[in-house]
Amino acid sequence: MFKKRHRQSLGLGVILNQRGIGLAQSPRAGDASHAYPAWHWQAFPAQDIPTLPTDWPDPHCLRWARQRSGFVALSVAMAIPPEQLMRFTFNVGSSMGPRQLQAHLQAQLAPALPWPISEALWDYQLTEPTHAMATHPLSAARPAWLNAALQAQPTWQAEVLAIRKTWAQSCEQWCRQAGLRLVKLEPEWQASMRWQAFVQNSTVAVLQEPPCEASDALTDNEWSVLGGLALGVGHP
Q1: The dihedral sign for the CA sequence 231, 199, 186, 159
Q2: Which of 14, 43, 51, 68 fits a 20 to 30 Å CA distance from 23?
Q3: What is the per-residue pLDDT for 162?
Q4: What is the pLDDT of residues 155-203, one digit of tens each?
């Protein structure tokens, strides 16, 4: 979702919870069929456990986790916590050009946000309507030419995701202080869906469950998010 252009062969998925930091390294080219991305768990020292969900742990915890893991990757993908993410759906005309579409979505988004749009990072994805969705009901109250135009120009849907700039900047700074570079932020559900698709399409039977040692550190959902981040960090 929110990403920077970069060239890289390997990257790290990073996930935080109240107990520690999980890392997973993206597979090398040609290794996507392996059972799992290499992963590492680093528990927080007692003095560094975050006291609030919005707190960032000391960056040395992330640096230490990367060093102890032995991972060579320096680029990082992280998930956006649900409480930091806002999600909207807007209808848009299929005839809009890119600039007109962005202006239209910004005008729709601005009053829907709890903070000024200048303080937001946002992105969108268009969903092409099915034939049933594209068909507007005819109305005798409308001129024939208008009915024809509505039938010819179906309405698409734009799914818009927004986060606060300040949160993204603090996340980027936290990674930088640990000597790493944040290149991608995405919703937890998006990373999890990528992992689930990988599991379903894999011929490796052991993919059906995470390694037993992961269960003490991560929930099943956290494992899916971490795996999906690792698979997606090197791809657009």
Answers
A1: positive
A2: 51
A3: 96
A4: 788 999 999 999 999 999 999 999 999 999 999 999 999 998 888 877 6
Q: Are 180 and 148 in contact (CB under 8 A)?
A: no
Non-local (6+) Cβ contacts of 163 within 8 A are 2, 80, 84, 85, 86, 120, 121, 122, 185
In sequence order, the β-bridge partners of residue 181 are 75
Global pTM? 0.78
- For 1, 117, 157, the CA distances from 91, given in Å and listed in that order, are 20, 19, 5
| Domain assignments of the chain as residue spans, ordered by start | 2-83+165-232, 84-164
54: pLDDT strictly greater than 70? no
Where do runs of H (alpha helix) occur along the chain? 59-69, 98-109, 131-134, 144-152, 165-177, 188-201, 220-232
For 5, other C-beta atoms within 10 Å of its C-beta total: 6
Handedness of CA 226, 230, 233, 236 (dihedral sign): negative
Domain 2-83+165-232 -> CATH class: alpha beta
- Alpha carbon distance 93, 158 (integer Å): 10
4-36 pLDDT tens trace = 554 445 899 999 988 899 999 987 655 544 556
